[in-house]
Write a structure and sequence with these properties.
- The chain is built from four helices and eleven strands, in the order E-E-E-E-E-E-E-E-E-H-E-H-H-E-H.
- It is of the alpha+beta class and 204 residues long.
- The strands form two sheets. Strands 1, 2, 3, 4, 5 and 6 form a six-stranded antiparallel sheet that branches. The chain has a five-stranded mixed sheet with strand order 9-8-7-10-11.
- It is elongated, with a radius of gyration of 18 Å.
- The N and C termini lie far apart (51 Å).
Length: 204
């Protein structure tokens, strides 16, 4: 089933589309929409007249959800003290392929570690052939990161880092940030935390 991207009241959504890339509206003028490109996502309905182009021609190209499984990413940052010695951890799953990143950051705050983990994940995928055209589901347990990157929170600090992440994120056609509860037994989130802490321990 092909989907295109439109804005609904300023929020990007995935819109069920015909093969020619136009919204697959029914007789009542409404069309199925998703807030994330995932077969398990809840389907909503919206009036086509309330949907606006995003301004990016890439969003007009239909993407087949069933033919393009998402790349799943978990990121985490850790520091001893705040600020203090900091590290990041990243887990990237693409089907049977799995990559892990663990990097020491020197002295930094927890928020910097969380944001830098997201940046490293996106930079890694941006250098991976075809990844920017596929759905990417990036999980983080950082409410701060979700807020400053997706909810227009006004950041008093880390503005340059946030701007850099947003620039890299623009290369991805179907990037979805997912808030996950930290230290709740989610295996890959726990693993990302282990990788971040291991990076700090290696420098002690």
């Amino acid at each position: 089933m092909p989907w295109i991207v439109r804005k609904l009241r300023g929020t990007p959504v995935y819109v069920k589309a015909r093969p020619d890339g136009t919204p697959a509206a029914e007789a009542d003028g409404r069309v199925d929409i998703l807030y994330r490109l995932d077969p398990a996502a809840k389907v909503y309905r919206a009036a086509v007249r309330n949907l606006e182009p995003t301004g990016d021609p890439a969003d007009d190209r239909p993407v087949d959800m069933e033919a393009s499984d998402p790349i799943v990413v978990y990121t985490d940052g850790a520091c001893t003290g705040n600020p203090g010695p900091a590290g990041l951890g990243v887990v990237i799953r693409d089907g049977d392929d799995r990559r892990e990143l663990s990097e020491y950051l020197g002295d930094a705050t927890n928020n910097i570690a969380e944001l830098t983990a997201i940046l490293r994940a996106l930079e890694t995928l941006a250098d991976t052939a075809g990844a920017t055209d596929r759905p990417v589901h990036l999980h983080t347990d950082s409410s701060y990161s979700i807020g400053v990157l997706t909810k227009n929170w006004k950041a008093k600090a880390n503005q340059e880092l946030i701007a850099r992440i947003k620039r890299v994120a623009q290369a991805f056609r179907h990037l979805q940030f997912v808030k996950v509860k930290g230290h709740a037994g989610v295996p890959d989130n726990e693993r990302a935390d282990e990788l971040a802490r291991a990076a700090i321990d290696r420098r002690r």
